[in-house]
């Protein structure tokens, strides 16, 4: 997130104060606040809490709320405390904005996945601690039984907390009422058999919600280009100038039928595009449900592809002979951009967008091991939080001279080619020197890398940590970030030993 800065290992939130708020922040043109964490993932979540509060203040000013009440909201912003435990949820105005609540769903999912896969690593330490404190001798079966019971307990407890949040059991009176706002609620009043609905002065239209969403949601550039067409469809579905607080689940009964008839350039949408529309819809309304602007949780079921379509579209990995062709081609190419990006893909499994964003300072030594840091930057954003990681450099790359190459460069980006330019070049090279099979693209080198580790029997969480694709293995970054160090991952990378 662009509003996060790091100072002496700690993360801070820094944002230029919007013009409408200048009179409330007279001392400085920037609002800076500690995010109270040294963890990048938690910093991201805490920053979103502050952004939500700032946007709430902006909306309040837009609605001409009394100045003293705005000052109270500003004070609430500056005094924000980032809660960490369930106990901290009591007497909090907006429970759903706390760190604990924001990470609750991820924790519940990780426990459920661990339980279904009988993967007890997530509670191993807890089980060992309990058994030691009780002085109980145990065998492997006993240990697994205890771990299973612990997982069941965690899942049950998290479900209870989730329901308590849904039922507002932690809440104090609503902050608006607490601060003395004249809150006008929608109420139905029967007068001579007619139903009259009082106007909600705090309403937000679908068009206004779209602007808020674009400004605040984490959206990749490719997705952003698709949103205007998507919202054009959404407005046709729900109605122009629709107050989002009046949207109901019944509005989406014919969502897929209408989407199946939607056209771009007089052609029906492809299944992949319709899938994105479903994804956008769920993400859009989840954002506003989480901010109390709508009362329902919209969750449209994703399109299911037929088996024959999956088989036709399924990509293929390279054979070891074809991967060897890539390796030999990279060793003999004069273009150092193409050479090292290809070798990094082969031996470290990096994605193209990750490699083209690397800077000289991202090649670092950690615990005596040379590593590559995939970091967040505003110029070249990471695909998701799992991609932010520090990974040991494969020894083959060191032997081939990658460190000397980096050392010869000035500070700044290691490569002068961007993702799009590189992909175009590699498509031609792939067809000319490697294979004419359209299902084997340059990106499949990364799949070969992952498959090699999996087939060698490497633990799934280690593979996930290396490639930054933890969702594929149904575990989250929080589950392994404190357990897997670079020395362990170095051993994992030694299993990448292709027989070219």
Compact description:
This protein is mainly α and about 500 residues long. About 50% of the residues lie in helices and about 10% in strands.
Q: How would you describe this structure to a colleague?
A:
The protein is mainly alpha-helical and 500 residues long. Strands 1-2-3 form a 3-stranded antiparallel sheet, covered by helices on one side. The protein has a 3-stranded antiparallel sheet with strand order 8-9-10. Helix 3 packs antiparallel against helix 5, helix 4 crosses helix 5 and helix 13 runs parallel beside helix 18. The longest helix is centred in the first third of the chain and has 27 residues. It is globular.
Q: Work out the strand percent.
A: 5-15%
Rg measurement, Å = 26 Å
- Tally of individual helices: 21
The largest β sheet comes out as: 3 strands, antiparallel
Q: Tell me roughly what share of residues is in helical segments.
A: 40-55%
The CATH class assignment of the largest domain is: Mainly Alpha
Mean pLDDT: 78
CATH homolog superfamily of the largest domain: Intergrase catalytic core
CATH architecture tag of the largest domain: Orthogonal Bundle
CATH topology of the largest domain: hpI Integrase, Chain A
Strand arrangement within the widest β-sheet reads 1-2-3
**Overall spatial form:** globular
Q: What gap, in angstroms, lies between the N and C termini?
A: 41 Å
Number of domains: 4
Q: How many extended strands?
A: 10
State the low-pLDDT regions, or none.
Answer: 172-202, 471-481
User: By helix and strand content, what is the structural category?
Assistant: mainly alpha
């Amino acid at each position: 997130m662009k509003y996060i800065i790091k100072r002496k290992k700690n993360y801070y939130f820094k944002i230029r104060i919007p013009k409408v708020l200048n009179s409330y922040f007279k001392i400085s043109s920037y609002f800076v606040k500690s995010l109270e964490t040294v963890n990048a993932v938690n910093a991201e979540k805490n920053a979103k809490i502050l952004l939500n509060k700032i946007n709430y203040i902006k909306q309040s000013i837009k609605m001409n709320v009394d100045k003293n009440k705005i000052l109270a909201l500003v004070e609430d912003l500056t005094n924000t405390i980032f809660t960490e435990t369930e106990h901290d949820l009591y007497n909090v105005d907006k429970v759903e904005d706390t760190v604990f609540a924001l990470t609750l769903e991820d924790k519940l999912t990780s426990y459920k996945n661990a339980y279904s896969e009988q993967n007890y690593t997530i509670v191993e330490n807890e089980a060992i601690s309990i058994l030691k404190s009780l002085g109980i001798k145990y065998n492997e079966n006993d240990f697994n039984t205890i771990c299973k019971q612990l997982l069941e307990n965690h899942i049950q407890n998290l479900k209870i907390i989730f329901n308590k949040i849904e039922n507002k059991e932690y809440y104090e009176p609503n902050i608006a009422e607490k601060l003395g706002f004249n809150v006008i609620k929608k109420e139905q009043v029967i007068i001579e058999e007619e139903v009259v609905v009082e106007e909600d002065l705090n309403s937000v239209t679908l068009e206004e919600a779209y602007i808020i969403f674009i400004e605040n949601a984490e959206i990749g550039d490719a997705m952003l280009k698709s949103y205007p067409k998507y919202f054009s469809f959404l407005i046709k579905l729900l109605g122009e100038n629709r107050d989002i607080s009046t949207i109901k689940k019944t509005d989406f009964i014919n969502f897929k039928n209408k989407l199946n008839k939607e056209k771009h350039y007089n052609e029906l949408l492809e299944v992949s595009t319709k899938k994105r529309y479903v994804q956008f819809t769920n993400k859009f309304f989840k954002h506003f449900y989480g901010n109390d602007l709508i009362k329902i949780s919209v969750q449209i079921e994703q399109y299911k592809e037929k088996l024959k379509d999956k088989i036709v579209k399924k990509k293929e990995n390279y054979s070891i002979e074809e991967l060897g062709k890539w390796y030999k081609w990279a060793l003999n190419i004069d273009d150092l951009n193409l050479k090292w990006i290809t070798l990094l893909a082969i031996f470290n499994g990096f994605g193209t967008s990750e490699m083209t964003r690397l800077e000289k300072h991202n090649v670092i030594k950690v615990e005596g091991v040379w590593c590559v840091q995939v970091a967040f930057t505003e110029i070249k954003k990471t695909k998701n939080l799992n991609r932010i990681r520090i990974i040991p450099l494969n020894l083959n790359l060191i032997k081939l001279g990658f460190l000397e190459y980096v050392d010869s460069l000035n500070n700044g980006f290691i490569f002068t080619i961007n993702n799009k330019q590189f992909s175009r070049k590699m498509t031609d090279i792939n067809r000319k020197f490697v294979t004419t099979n359209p299902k084997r693209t340059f990106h499949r080198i990364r799949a070969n890398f992952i498959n090699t580790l999996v087939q060698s029997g490497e633990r799934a969480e280690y593979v996930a940590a290396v490639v930054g694709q933890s969702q594929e293995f149904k575990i989250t970054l929080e589950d392994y970030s404190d357990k897997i160090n670079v020395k362990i991952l170095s051993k994992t990378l030694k299993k990448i030993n292709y027989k070219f």
